[in-house]
Amino acid sequence: MLDSLKDVIRKSSIHVCLVSTGGCNGCDIEVVALLSPRYDLEQYGIYVHNNPREADVILIAGAVTEQWREKLQRIYAKAPEPKVVVAVGNCPLSGDVFNQEGGSVYAPASDFIPVDAEISGCPPRPSEILAAILAVGPDAIATKGRQAKGGHTVEEKAEGGEKV
Ligand code: SF4
């Protein structure tokens, strides 16, 4: 019963799992801004949570620290196929300000798990993060036999929207 209810809800939505590996949380704040009325992420049927088992898209924010290397791989392993990953901000790309000599920051994150899209910036704008999710999310759910809300693709909805 619960599983079939979940299937109905998931049929037209894109589930995004946010993984914060270790940064200043500036990128997390930009992701949270997507939930505000200004961007209203859920109008696209996109939901952000931290459950990799439900993830269509994994967002990585922050630098990969010593403690996060293996954890990141374990989280990636839990995500269902196709595993789609977006690296948000400079930290997962280069370690940014945290990548200092003698430190324990590892970069890029793609050394540990495959990354499908990268958004540079410190932090990137919410609209850039949304654009990246929209670039990879619809294909990710289409591979699973699902379509974006209302019979339209999420990209079509974004084209019609004014808030992005
Ligand atoms: S990229 Fe910049 S804003 Fe984002 S977590 Fe790293 S230091 Fe903070």
CATH fold type: Rossmann fold
Strand order in space, largest sheet: 2-1-3-5-7
Count helical runs: 6
What is the CA-based Rg, rounded? 16 Å
Bound ligand species: iron/sulfur cluster
The backbone outline, from C-alpha atoms, is globular
What is the SS-derived class? alpha/beta
Distance between the termini: 36 Å
Total number of strands: 7
Indicate the CATH architecture. Answer: 3-Layer(aba) Sandwich
Order of helices and strands: HEHEEEHEHEEHH
Reading off the top of the CATH hierarchy, the class is best stated as Alpha Beta
Low-confidence stretches: 150-155, 160-164
Overall structural domain count? 1
Estimate the mean pLDDT confidence: 88
Key features of this structure:
single chain, 164 residues, alpha/beta, Rossmann fold, five-stranded parallel beta sheet, two-stranded antiparallel sheet, 7 strands, 19% strand, globular, disordered C terminus, binds iron/sulfur cluster
Short description:
With about 160 residues, the protein is an alpha/beta fold. It has six helices and seven strands, in the order αβαβββαβαββαα.
Descriptive overview:
The relative contact order is 0.20. This protein has one domain: Rossmann fold. Residues 150-155 and 160-164 have low confidence and may be disordered. It is α/β, with parallel strands linked by helices and 164 residues long. The strands form 2 sheets. The chain has a 5-stranded parallel sheet with strand order 2-1-3-5-7, sandwiched between helices. The protein has a two-stranded antiparallel sheet with strand order 4-6. It has helices spanning 2-10, 26-33, 68-78, 90-94, 126-143, 154-160; strands at 14-22, 46-49, 57-62, 64-65, 84-88, 105-106, 117-119. Residues 23-24, 26-27, 61-62, 89-91, 96-97, 122-123 line the site of iron/sulfur cluster (SF4). Iron/sulfur cluster is lined by residues 23-24, 26-27, 61-62, 89-91, 96-97, 122-123.
